[in-house]
């Protein structure tokens, strides 16, 4: 993830009172050839995106599902 996305995602996480921790849930962030892909299995998550705005949409979907404690396979948009 580039520095701008990292900085912006930190601001969003702070606003939502979500803290980063070495003991927390691992979220893999990677680039995608098309659209966004989001996955969460209760232990780790994955966000794949093509455009920077898609990263934030995927992050929002992941946080929403995690707060509801929903496990889900890959969601593609």
What is the count of β-strands? 4
CATH class: Alpha Beta
Describe the sheet with the most strands.
4 strands, mixed
Q: Detail the poorly predicted runs.
A: none
Order the strands across the largest sheet as they lie in space: 1-3-2-4
Overall pLDDT confidence: 83
3D structure, described in words:
With 77 residues, the chain is of the alpha+beta class. It has one domain: Double Stranded RNA Binding Domain (2-Layer Sandwich), CATH 3.30.160. The protein is built from two helices and four strands; from the N terminus they run αβββαβ. It has helices at 3-15, 52-67, and strands at residues 26-31, 37-40, 44-49, 72-76. Strands 1-3-2-4 form a four-stranded mixed beta sheet, covered by helices on one side. Strand 2 (37-40) and strand 3 (44-49) form a beta hairpin. The radius of gyration is 12 Å and the shape is globular. The relative contact order is 0.20.
Write a concise synopsis of the structure shown:
It contains two helices and four strands, in the order αβββαβ. With 77 residues, the chain is of the alpha+beta class. It has a four-stranded mixed beta sheet with strand order 1-3-2-4, with helices on one face.
List the helices and strands and how they pair.
Elements: H1 3-15, E1 26-31, E2 37-40, E3 44-49, H2 52-67, E4 72-76
Parallel strand pairs: 1-3
Antiparallel strand pairs: 2-3, 2-4
């Amino acid at each position: 993830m580039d520095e701008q996305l990292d900085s912006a995602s930190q601001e969003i996480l702070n606003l939502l009172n979500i803290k980063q921790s070495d003991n927390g849930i691992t979220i893999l962030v990677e680039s995608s050839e098309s659209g966004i892909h989001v996955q969460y299995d209760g232990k780790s998550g994955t966000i794949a995106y093509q455009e920077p705005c898609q990263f934030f949409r995927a992050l929002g979907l992941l946080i929403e599902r995690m707060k509801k404690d929903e496990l889900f396979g890959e969601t593609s948009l």
